[in-house]
Amino acid sequence: MPVISHTAKDMIGNMAPLLRDGEYVFVSTPDEALGQALAPKAIATHREDEGLSLILPASIAQGAGFDAGNPMRCITLKVYSALDGVGLTAAVADALAGQGIPCNMVAAFHHDHVFVPSDRADEAMQILIALQQEVAGG
């Protein structure tokens, strides 16, 4: 049975970051037909006032004519984070920001996902593992 954490310390101490394969890009389109055609290939979507935002594999985005010049990698925090939990996102973003690594956080039902520039993904993993170990050990 997975550990379900509700406190920031528990969530950070158990976050078990996992670097996913592949590169992704964030795109947006006001074109309803294009958005619906791409949605099944997206790993996440969100409807905004400006159009449908999608997180797509970089190759699919590029094939659809989008700029794929800012590829990102996805780090999944394997802790089952509580939807009412406080502090996990802030701690992760703060640790990465402290080393100049931008991140885009995406929360889903079971896990939080951190998107970082592809060329800094290994460094981001080291930072998050160190954060987890620091909190778990202290």
Give a verbal description of the structure.
- By secondary structure, this protein is of the alpha+beta class.
- Helix content is 33%, strand content 30%.
- The protein has 5 helices and 9 strands; from the N terminus they run βαββαββαββαββα.
- The protein has helices at 8-13, 32-38, 58-63, 88-97, 121-137, and strands at residues 4-5, 17-19, 24-29, 44-48, 51-57, 72-77, 80-81, 104-107, 112-117.
- The strands form 3 sheets. Strands 2-6-9-8 form a 4-stranded antiparallel β-sheet, with helices on one face. The protein has a 3-stranded antiparallel β-sheet with strand order 3-5-4.
- Strand 4 and strand 5 form a beta hairpin.
- It is elongated.
Which residues sit in consecutive blocks of at least 5 with pLDDT less than 50? 1-5
Report Rg: 16 Å
Helical content stands at 25-40%
**What spatial form do the alpha-carbon principal axes imply?**
elongated
Instruction: Give the name of the CATH superfamily of the largest domain.
Output: VC0802-like
Q: In CATH terms, what is the architecture of the largest domain?
A: 2-Layer Sandwich
| Overall mean pLDDT | 89
CATH class of the largest domain: Alpha Beta
Number of helices: 5
